[in-house]
Design brief:
Length: 188
């Protein structure tokens, strides 16, 4: 009798296997729908493809704030006033040496940017920044990939401050190799 029961059950599960799979699939789809329905806007936008575009002078105010955040994140030791940061950013955006690219979400919020020196060979990435709440969503890598594709680059250089270990780990993770040692002599 127990042997019969086992065979019976196995037989049953074979018959119902496709139905079980369908149920599981339905559960997955329902869960995905619920997930999307109950997320707030910001989270939904984060899942969307942001727009990659050149910065214009209208982005100056936003980009100056982001540059200030970048400087805080990398704990840079050369002091600049807010005005100097804005003036330099204006020069990056409007001059002939640099191209500033941004990633913008559907709320027209710049979620990341980078500054590219197109006069150097190879092109030189001067700043790469993703707003802290948007990090670890692939946007830093996306910015880099978009820039490489936009200018059909096979190589790109950058410098990163020695103590910015998190950025160094990111750059190495996406494929950069250490190449130079930068040094500075400061006299008082
Ligand atoms: C560095 C920075 C731009 C990375 O942007 P991000 O959007 O968070 O990075 P991504 O989500 O695109 O990460 C891409 C990959 O790198 C990995 N990664 C990201 N940050 C990492 C870190 N600190 N250490 C190791 N790996 C890291 C991710 O896990 C991801 O891996 P995967 O592709 O295998 O999944 C962002 O952290 C930042 O703005 N930092 C502050 C500004 C700064 O210091 N910029 C450098 C100035 S030189």
């Amino acid at each position: 009798m127990p042997a019969f029961k086992t065979v019976h059950l196995c037989h049953k599960s074979c018959i119902f296997a496709p139905t079980l799979l369908q149920l599981l699939w339905q559960f997955r789809t329902t869960r995905a729908c619920l997930y999307w329905c109950f997320l707030d806007n910001r989270e939904i936008i984060e899942k969307m493809d942001p727009l990659f575009r050149l910065a214009t002078i209208h982005d100056l105010a936003q980009l100056s704030v982001l540059n200030k955040q970048l400087r805080e994140d990398e704990k840079i030791d050369n002091k600049m006033t807010d005005e100097e940061i804005t003036q330099r950013m204006e020069f990056f955006i409007t001059g002939q040496v640099y191209k500033v690219h941004v990633l913008e979400n559907q709320e027209k919020e710049i979620i990341g940017y980078c500054v590219l020196d197109i006069t150097r060979n190879p092109y030189y990435l001067r700043q790469l920044f993703v707003k802290s709440i948007f990090r670890n969503n692939g946007y830093g890598k996306l910015l880099l990939e978009k820039v490489m594709a936009e200018y059909r680059l096979k190589e790109i250089d950058l410098e990163v401050i020695q103590w910015n270990e998190s950025a160094i780990r990111f750059y190495e993770h996406v494929g950069f190799k250490r190449r130079y040692i930068g040094m500075r002599l400061t006299t008082v």
